Amino acid sequence: MPIDAVAMMVAIIDEHAPTDIWRGSPLIAYRMLGNTNRGEIGEAFVRRYLRAHDIDAGNGGRTSPTDLRVGETRFEVKTASLGANGTFQFNHVRLDRDYAFLLCLGICPDRILFGVWSKSAVAVNKAGKLVRMAEGQAVTFKLTKRAEHLLAVEDMPATIRTLMEEGR
Prior knowledge:
This protein is of the alpha+beta class. Helix content is 30%, strand content 29%. The protein has 5 helices and 9 strands. The protein has helices spanning 5-16, 28-31, 35-52, 119-123, 156-166; strands at 57-58, 68-70, 73-81, 87-94, 101-107, 112-118, 130-132, 140-146, 151-152. It has a 6-stranded mixed beta sheet with strand order 1-2-3-5-6-9. The model has no long low-confidence stretch (mean pLDDT 90).
């Protein structure tokens, strides 16, 4: 009987592969997308989720420098998926853009989390330590957050309403 080399390799890979926290997840399709698509999906989700909770949320279109607008307040939205180490890495955080708040959307295998901070808080590392995306540049940063340091997405509408009321 011939040996099935592919089946043998699959078995060996399974023996050596770390546990995939995304296997069987209802949100696994998110992990299969490219980074640009992930960002667009995150922005669209936040807008629709807020609108579903009667919060006026919009944007200026795909080429707009603003990801999200709630009333006249501008938000930068970053989306990341949960890694095996229990963290999210929110990439390309920029401080040179015109926004009031950074909203980070964390996609887990079975739930959605978020965090939101003023741009000024982000700039002084109150949202977490910003790390340069590339050596020698100071334009784009990454922000790493543990899942337990974010909030359940169900708290987003109340959080956004509070931010908007405090800004009046």
